[in-house]
Structure formats: structure tokens, C-alpha cells
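User: Hey, my collaborator sent me this sequence without any context and asked if I could get a structure. I don't really work with proteins. Can you help?
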Amino acid sequence: MGGLSVGPLVFSAERAPVLAAILVAMLVAGLLARRVGAALSTWLLSALVAAALLGRIVFVASNWPGFAGAPWTILAFWQGGFDGFGAAAGGALATLWHLRRSQRLWLPALATLACAAITWNTVHQLARGGDMGLPAAMALTRLDGSAVPASDWQGKPIVINLWASWCPPCRREMPMMAEVAQQETQVPILFVNQGEGPGAIRRYLAQEGIAISALQDPGMQMMAHFQTMGLPATLFIDRDGKLRAGHMGEISRARLLSGIEDLR
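Assistant: No problem. I've predicted the 3D structure and written it out in C-alpha cell form, which is a compact way to encode the shape of the chain:
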């Protein structure tokens, strides 16, 4: 899955390149604005806002069933869920609007975008790591200590949720994920607890009234293998056992359903 950490902050391989590109774009635009005027910074801010808004709107429209039951989660953008094409269209429209009568700003704007693109590509290559698949010997156990047979995941797309009962965002997303898991018949969701014993897992599930078939990974080998830097982490694995996508942090219903649909 990969990712980058800056001090106590952890960024997933999906978000780190975008955040780095935005920071570099703001820095470059700020420096160039000293020569060409504040209009350049105004353009960048407008382009970023337009990209974020249209990217979110297109994602919500494309995944409306995931938001219909809880429309207020549309505002929970930190859980992920932006359409790349929508974001690009929003940024392009804002750019055309702001720079249509300012030819002298086109070159500085293109220089800003070029620096941002180079940064995005560099951080993307660093953060994603190599192509990842399931461990060759994925040893998971049920709460009763019995081994989970490989047939539970081999040859089929699956979602793996790495979690722990002491993790607040894990606890927030768990009821929703358990509900989706009960409804989903084609793509199983494996809830793989990291580092806790069966007693702690059973107590948490009983207290919260959550019905899932929790699995154990006491040595946290899954976190180490997929290079996740925090919990929760949701991994979308295709039928060949390869990591198709990963989401680090609390996930929304819409983002989960979108990832499952991509695996079908």
C-alpha cells in the first residue's frame, strides 16, 4: 500500500502525491506572484477550489447509493472520494475563466502546473512502492484459534480491513463496514484484527453489538507486508491476489462501495 510519514502525520499513497503537488504549486505561485502580481495566486486558489468541488460533486453523483442513507456524509471529504476527471475539469474551467484575458499569466501558470505535476509523479513513485500482492503464506486465524483456509480468499476479489478495537476511527467505521459485509455476496470483506487477543476482540464486538467474523493477525504481519503506517486500512484485492487500491484512515460507505464495484 505504501505511504509517507512526516513526523506524526501519516499520508496514504493516494493522498500524499496530491498534497505534495498542492504545496509545491502554492509555493511556486507565491514566488512568481511577486513578479507578475497577486492575480496568479488568486487563479491557483480558484482552480484548487473548483477542482475539489467538481471532483467531489462528480464522485457523489456517481456513487449516490452510498450517500443516500446519510447525505450529511457528503461533507466528510477527509474520508476520501474525489473523481479525478471531475477535478481536472474543475481546475481547467477555473483556469480558462481567470486567465482568458491575462496572457501574461499563462506562462507563470504553466510553470506552476509543471512543477506540481513533477512533484506529484515523484511522490507517487516514492509512496506507492512496488506492486503488492497477498503474502505467499497468509496465516490468519479465527477467534477460536482455527486456521482460515486459503480458499476463503484465493481466486476471488476480496476487501481486507485492518483494524483494532483501541483505534477510534476503526470503531467509527466498523458498524457501517459490518453492514456492508452482511449485504455483499460477491466480494467478501475480511476483518483482520491487528495485534489483539481473542478476549479483547470478543469484548469489543459484544459491547458494540457488531456481528462479524473477525480474524486475528497477532503479529501484525499484514500491516508490515502492505507497509501500512496506521489503522484503519482498507485494502482492495483483485481475484489474482494483487492490491488494486488501498485506503488509509476512516473510510466512507461511498468510497467502500466504489472500491468493491471496481473489483467486480
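In plain terms: The longest helix spans residues 39-62. You can pass these C-alpha cells on to your collaborator as they are.
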